[in-house]
Amino acid sequence: QVQLVESGGGLVQPGGSLRLSCAASGFTFSSAFMAWYRQAPGKERELVATITSVGGSRTYADSVKGRFTIFRDNAKNTVYLQMSSLKPDDTAVYYCTARRRGYWGQGTQVTVSS
């Protein structure tokens, strides 16, 4: 059974940091292209970052470049999203996905507010 379980979301003040984790099981994680998406209320789901199977290539949305870092630990079947200098506009539900395989997590809420 395929599972992607996100964790690490929460409430943080503007300028703060959070690290999201996504634990994968039920498929060969080490060969999977992974990504993080987010969806804010009333908005479409937005691609945030991607990472290739061995982590050699990463991409970021312009809105998060220089503030977010995606990385993975294939030994732990986990992909991470390190978020820094958070802004209220980063408030959203964040989803982990092995999108090329159609696998999505349930999402974790990130709220940036003072």
Topology:
Blueprint: E1 3-7, E2 10-12, E3 18-25, E4 34-39, E5 46-51, E6 58-60, E7 68-73, E8 78-83, E9 92-98, E10 103-104, E11 108-112
Parallel strand pairs: 2-11
Antiparallel strand pairs: 1-3, 3-8, 4-5, 4-9, 5-6, 7-8, 9-10, 9-11
Tag the structure with descriptive keywords.
114 residues, mainly beta, seven-stranded mixed β-sheet, four-stranded antiparallel β-sheet, 11 strands, globular
Structural notes for this entry:
Strand 9 and strand 10 form a beta hairpin. This protein is mainly β and 114 residues long. 0% of the residues lie in helices and 50% in strands. The termini are far apart. The model has no long low-confidence stretch (mean pLDDT 96). The protein is globular, with a radius of gyration of 13 Å. It contains no helices and eleven strands.
- Regions with little confidence, pLDDT below 50 for 5+ residues: none
Instruction: Give the helix tally.
Output: 0
Morphology call: globular
Counted beta strands: 11
Give the biggest beta sheet.
Answer: 7 strands, mixed
Quick gist of this model?
With 114 residues, this protein is mostly beta strands. It has strands at 3-7, 10-12, 18-25, 34-39, 46-51, 58-60, 68-73, 78-83, 92-98, 103-104, 108-112.
